[in-house]
Amino acid sequence: MHSPTTTPTDHQLPQAIEPRNPGMELDLDWVRRAQANTSAIERRAKSLPGRRSVKKDYQAAWLLKAITCMDLTTLSGDDTEGRVRRLCAKARQPVRAELLEQLGMPDITTGAICVYHDMISTAVDALDGSGIPVAAVSTGFPAGLSPFHLRVEEIREGVKAGADEIDIVITRRHVLQGNWQALYDEMRAFREACGDAHVKAILATGELGTLRNVARASLVCMMAGADFIKTSTGKESVNATLPVSLVMVRAIRDYYDRTGYRVGYKPAGGISKAKDAVTYLSLMKDELGDRWLQPDLFRFGASSLLGDIERQLEHHVTGAYSATYRHALA
Ligand SMILES: O=C[C@H](O)COP(=O)(O)O
C-alpha cells in the first residue's frame, strides 16, 4: 500500500483531457454480481493513512492539491448574491496571496464552485475569465422528488444559465426497490439533458441502506453515462465516509477495467478537516493511482474545508520559518 510520503503530482490539468464516459447498455448480471464485503471494507478504511503519516515537508503540497480539487460550495436556504460573489472571490484566490507566494503556488484556484440553480448567473459573472467551472445542484436537490419532467427541465435551465457541471440527485427509491432499469433510464435522461455540461450523479449513500446497494447504484449510474459519481448532498444524516468511498472508487476501477473510461469521484458532505482531505487523497492514490488526483477526475464537495486548509498552511509556513530561525541561532 502506498502512503502519501511523496508529493502529489503536479497541480496542472492533465495535457490529454479524458474522453467523456459515453455509458453502455445496462448489464443487469454485472449489477447483480456486485457485492461489498462490509467487514473487509471497514478494516481497509481504518488502515488508511491520515495527515500524521505524511512527511511534514510534503504536507503543504497535499493541502494545495486538495484546494485544486475542491468544489467550493454554498448550498444554504439563505444564500444571497453577495455570499456567492464572496465565494467566487475565494475560489479565484483560495488563500491569502503572500502565503501562496511563499508556498510557490501563486496562481492556484479551487477546482470549481458549487451553488443552487438560482445563483448560477451570479457565479458565472463573478468567475468570468477565470476558467473556474460553475457546478449547480439540480433535479430537485436534495430529495429529488419533484415531478420527473420538472427535474429534467431544471437541468436544461441550469445549462442555459451557464452551468458547466450539473450535480443531479438520483431517486433513492429505485435503489431500495432494486429497480435498476428505472435508475438507469432516469440517469440516462439526466445525462442527455446535460448536453455538453458534465454530470455528477449524487447517490445520497447515507439513504441507500447497504454498501452493496452503493456498489450497484454506482455501476448503474456509470453505465448510464455519469461523468462523476458523488456520495452525498451534504443534507443526509450520514454523508461522505471512507467505507462508502472505498466501495465507490472500486466500482470506478471495475468500470474502467471493463470499458476503458475513467469516471470521476466526488466525496461530499461533512469533510471539513485538512487531515481528512489528505486521507481521501491518499485513498484515491492507493486505489486508483495518480491520474485520479487531478481535478477532472476528483473533487471534494465542501463548504468549510478551505478554512481549515488555510489554517494548516499558515502553520506550515510559520513552522518552517521558525525551524530555519532556530537553525540559524544554533
Ligand atoms: O456538495 C457539497 C456538500 O453539500 C457540502 O457539504 P458540507 O457543507 O458538509 O461541506
UniProtKB/TrEMBL annotation:
Entry's Gene Ontology molecular function annotations: deoxyribose-phosphate aldolase activity
Disordered: annotated span: 1-22
Enzyme kind, highest EC tier: lyase
Coiled-coil intervals: none
Keywords of the record: Lyase, Schiff base
GO biological process: carbohydrate catabolic process; deoxyribonucleotide catabolic process
Family: Belongs to the DeoC/FbaB aldolase family. DeoC type 2 subfamily.
Record protein name field: Deoxyribose-phosphate aldolase
Organism field: Shimia gijangensis
